[in-house]
Design brief:
Structural class: alpha+beta
Protein name: Uricase
Shape: globular
Keywords: Oxidoreductase, Purine metabolism
Number of strands: 10
Helix content: 10-25%
Oligomer: single chain
Largest sheet: 8 strands, antiparallel
Number of domains: 2
Strand content: 35-45%
Bound molecules: uric acid
CATH superfamily of the largest domain: Urate Oxidase
Family: Belongs to the uricase family.
CATH topology of the largest domain: Urate Oxidase
Strand order of the largest sheet: 1-2-3-4-5-6-7-10
Catalytic activity: urate + O2 + H2O = 5-hydroxyisourate + H2O2
Pathway: Purine metabolism; urate degradation; (S)-allantoin from urate: step 1/3
CATH class of the largest domain: Alpha Beta
Distance between the termini: 34 Å
Length: about 290
């Protein structure tokens, strides 16, 4: 029996970057967290401590800030620039994975209208991207969002499920359906209008959530993924991770009050977790699973 080094990668995680674009009067901010992960000919560093192939993670962090000096643009674009740079300039590095999260800021509405240089952090959702650039296998861009919390007050039921001796859940024909959307979608190519694509996918996810009469969160998941692919030719695959944010009808009978689907306890934990991928059947193989 031999002991060998398996899959490995290394890089700087959690690089926090805020870029200010200063127009004459109006400022704009871009707020990102960037993770870089490199892999390639890295056996020697692990086995004998030879660092010749190791571009320090500190240098990777510096590169993120240096590249931001030329502007950030869309997260996908920034990720592509960085990933290509590491592979092109480091002969030992065959693959770079750059993962980005962008936090949204809203302009503050001042007494005299929109404030030119004041912002409040929006908690609505986080936009994400992951770029894989591999010297041999090519380039792959995955966009996404997480933390987009949505709720339907009706048009959701859950009946007819499998029952065993541990089942206590009552069937319901009318319940609240709520979730925090965590979605990633893989692009066919490596160029395009990233901003327009993102906005359209977000709209499609929301429209499908709102417009689907739901017999389960699983069915809603598929409807959401399907709508995104039906509307967006540039995409080949959608992955959704949907926590079921249970809302429990409170029993008000002890207080002599009925509760016609009005008062709920918003559960925290445990929560159902429904995850799935919806893809075109001719989608090219992914470099890295969604
Ligand atoms: O939409 C649902 N899917 C489930 O699998 C499930 N399980 C459960 O207890 N409630 C629900 N709701």
């Amino acid at each position: 029996m031999a002991i060998v080094l398996g899959d490995n990668r290394y890089g700087k995680a959690g690089v926090r970057l805020v870029r200010v674009d200063r127009g004459e009067a109006w400022h704009r901010i871009t707020d990102l967290t960037v993770d870089v992960a490199l892999s390639g000919e890295l056996t020697a560093v692990h086995l004998s401590g030879d660092n010749a192939h190791v571009l320090p993670t500190d240098t990777q962090k510096n590169t993120v800030y240096a590249f931001a000096a030329d502007g950030v643009g869309e997260v996908e674009e920034f990720g592509l620039r960085l990933a290509r740079h590491f592979v092109a300039t480091q002969p030992a590095i065959g693959r770079a994975v750059v993962t980005l999260a962008e936090y949204e800021w809203d302009r503050i509405e001042g007494a005299d209208g929109p404030a030119p240089h004041s912002f409040s952090r929006s908690g609505r959702y986080t936009r994400t991207a992951r770029v894989v650039h591999d010297a041999a296998a090519g380039t792959e861009v995955v966009s996404g969002l997480r933390g987009l919390t949505v709720l339907n007050t009706t048009d959701s039921e859950f009946v007819g499920y499998a029952v065993d001796r541990y089942t206590t859940l009552p069937e319901t024909k009318d319940r609240i359906l709520a979730t925090d959307i965590d979605a990633r979608w893989r692009h066919r190519g490596t160029d395009g209008d990233w901003a327009a694509s993102f906005a359209a996918v977000r709209r499609a996810l929301l429209a499908a959530f709102a417009g689907t009469y739901s017999r389960s969160l699983q069915q809603t998941l598929y409807a959401m993924g399907r709508q995104v692919l039906a509307e967006r030719d540039e995409l080949v695959e959608v992955r959704l991770s949907l926590p079921n944010r249970h809302h429990y009808l409170v029993d008000l009978a002890p207080f002599g009050r009925d509760n016609p689907n009005a008062v709920f306890l918003a559960g925290d934990r445990p929560y159902g977790l429904v995850e799935g991928t919806v893809r075109r059947d001719d989608a090219p193989a992914a470099l890295v699973e969604l």
